[in-house]
Amino acid sequence: MDLVVGKFAESWSRFNPSLSAMASVYIPVQNSEEEVRVALDQLPRDASDILDILKAEQAPLDLWLIIAREYFKQGKIEQFRQILEEGSSSDIDEYYADVKYERIAILNALGSEFLPLDI
User: What biological process terms from GO does the record include (predicted)?
Assistant: First the structure.
């Protein structure tokens, strides 16, 4: 992960979750014009590292979902689950109370992990 100086939302990858694994997402740093670049093909093995940044910067929940999805695509199911469980925890409520759509998307992703694939 790199600290990148610049305006937010300059990257298509942040808004287009269908980009290839070579893409990066940018987590805005609070009260700053800096952002942390996270290369999706180099996610940390320990999801706690990325969770610490997401929580500290109160990153938009769509970024939580993009990162969780990428862990899933890489076969890292435990990290996928960890990101989604943290993103749907009651601790998150106070920061994201007004963010309905993304919260529902995280809950749907977490629930879908328990569905059999051969329905």
Answer: regulation of DNA-templated transcription; transcription elongation by RNA polymerase II
The stretch 53-77 carries a mean pLDDT of 94
Residue 64: name the closest of 94, 97, 96, 90 by CA. Answer: 96
- Per residue, the 3-state secondary structure of the chain, as one string, reads CEEEECCCCCCHHHHCCCCCCCCEEEEECCCCCEEEEEEHHHCCCCHHHHHHHHHHCCCCHHHHHHHHHHHHHCCCHHHHHHHHHHHCCHHHHHHHCCCHHHHHHHHHHHHHCCCCCCC
Measured over the CA atoms of residue 4, residue 28, residue 31 and residue 59, the dihedral's sign is negative
Give the start-to-end residue ranges of the domains of the chain: 2-112
State whether the Cα torsion 86-113-47-15 is positive or negative.
negative
CA angle 24, 101, 112 (to 5 degrees): 75
pLDDT of residue 43: 95
> How close are the terminal C-alpha atoms of the chain, in Å?
38
Determine if the pTM surpasses 0.85: no
